[in-house]
Amino acid sequence: MTTKDNLAEAFAGESQANRKYLAYGEAAAKDGFPHVAKLFRAVAAAETVHALAHFRAMGGVSATVENLKAAIDGERHEFEEMYPGFVATAEAEGAKAATISLKNAMAVEKIHHGLFTEALNAVSSGADLADAKISVCALCGHTVIGDVPDHCPVCKARAEKFTEIV
Fold first, then answer.
1. DSSP summary character for residue 158
2. CA–CA distances in Å: residue 136 to residues 12, 113, 118, 162, 165
3. Would you tell me how many other CB atoms lie within 10 Å of the CB of residue 5?
4. Is 118 in contact with 129 (CB distance < 8 Å)?
5. What is the DSSP annotation of 22-52?
6. Which of 70, 97, 99, 109 could form a cystine bridge with 79, CB 3.0-4.6 A?
7. In the CATH hierarchy, which fold is given to the domain comprising 131-166?
8. Which residues in 64-83 are b (16+ Cβ under 10 Å) and which e?
9. pTM for the whole thing?
10. What's the confidence (pLDDT) of residue 91?
């Protein structure tokens, strides 16, 4: 394997470890172990440091226009190519929770594609996005600029489930 291959594998592993440790931290907190939860969150943050260092070392970060184009391509791949097959498999296997999770993600990736396209249009003309509230549904990841809806259009969660991103 090449160094670039090794960096790509390390980036994937560190990224996944970050997300797993955050989930483990939530479980530890729920189980009544707040200090173990804090440790999981701390190590998750360290894994993010590693992942970002590997991603930068492999040349993964460019100028904003190129980063937005890469994000748009990635989101398009997910909702057009990746998730449809995953959903079909989950449905065929009768995996209800997986089907819901995958369908929600597929719907949200399409929304992300649109948001990144809007950002690319702004940046390409030399402008930033308008300063507006951006919120994310804690249940499905639906991302909204501006006021949150009474109910999430993807998963139907109530407005209280949205978290504002600062």
1. B
2. 24, 15, 17, 5, 7
3. 10
4. yes
5. HHHHHHHHHTT-HHHHHHHHHHHHHHHHHHH
6. 109
7. Rubrerythrin, domain 2 (2.20.28)
8. eeebbbebbeebbebbeebb
9. 0.92
10. 99
Amino acid at the residue 132 = A
CB neighbour class for 94 (10 Å; exposed up to 12, middle 13-18, buried from 19): exposed
Q: Indicate the domain borders of the chain.
A: 3-57, 62-129, 131-166
CA pair distance 70, 60, nearest whole angstrom:
10
Q: Which CATH architecture has domain 3-57?
A: Up-down Bundle (1.20)
**How high is the pLDDT of residue 160?**
98
Q: Which amino acid is at 100?
A: I
DSSP-assigned states of every residue in 98-141: HHHHHHHHHHHHHHHHHHHHHHHHHHHTT-PPP---EEEETTT-
Provide the 10 A C-beta neighbour count for residue 54: 20
Cα–Cα dist 128/81, whole Å: 30
Tokens representing 42 are: 């701390």
Q: Phi, psi at residue 129, to the nearest 5°?
A: -65, 155
User: What is the rounded distance in angstroms from the CA atom of residue 59 to the CA atom of residue 57?
Assistant: 5
- Residue recorded with tokens 């904003």: 64
DSSP single-letter state for residue 61: -
